[in-house]
Amino acid sequence: MYHFPIGVVVESFRKEIHEAIKEASKLGLDGIQMYGTRGDFTPENFTAERRRELLQFAKDNGVKFSAICGDFGHGFMNAESNKIYVERSKRVVDLALDMETNIVTTHIGVVPEDKTCERYKIMQEACYELAQYADSVNAHFAVETGPETSAVLGDFLDSLGSCGVGVNLDPANLVMVTGDDPAAAVHRLKKYIVHTHAKDGVMLKRTNPEYIYQVIPMPEDMAGITAFRETPLGEGSVDFKAYLKALEDIGYRGFLTIEREAGATPADDITLAANYLRKIIKEN
Fold first, then answer.
1. Which of 28, 61, 135, 165 is least enclosed, having the fewest CB within 10 Å?
2. Alpha-carbon distances, residue 174 vs 8, 59, 144 (angstroms)
3. Which residue, 27, 29, 34, is CA-closest to 54?
4. CA angle 246, 248, 253 (to 5 degrees)
């Protein structure tokens, strides 16, 4: 039998944080991931006392923090804004450590295939600084997969010479945006994977991921297109049996953290996802 703890992004419940933690506990989940970049839970607003209180509340409900989401929605593609967001990201790492996890997940933007372009160098510099800070406190910035193939992301991470910037492998993002195979991605990125999302979806129309992530303007004849659709687990294009086998093959023992960003009944979809994952784990 596989041995993967199952967690959930608490914001997926679309409830107040304490109620969401109680929901996760009722479902028998092992962990939670929380955004550390929104409202009362940003590093500057989330006081030390309130951090201790929320951590204890989670423990009292039998769950631990699998990771903190440090995504500010900007990525690290702009040298000027990087001066602000690299420092803010470091403070999210400090917050994560207070919540007894050393993993911060984030989007860094779209890594270009052209390693000689200016954006590649800008992203390298920012991620190298993040990696150095993470290494200094035994933590990881985990880049969420999706905007580029695992081959491109793997080459980029190799160039940093550190595992301080690792990977949060989201299989749905790969199949929805790049058409990449999640199981193959696990093997390409194996030395960097510190956290994963359990999410499913389908690609509706193949297009340039840089349009989706608003790096370059979308052509007028493609305006308003829907490039992909997130689905409940088991209803999309992710082969979860192959995906979990790949994670087992590389010796991964971290979280499978359920994320549900769409749909009208998130609690039902999270329950379905947990049961779906448990079935595959039990059968293997």
1. 28
2. 19, 33, 10
3. 34
4. 125
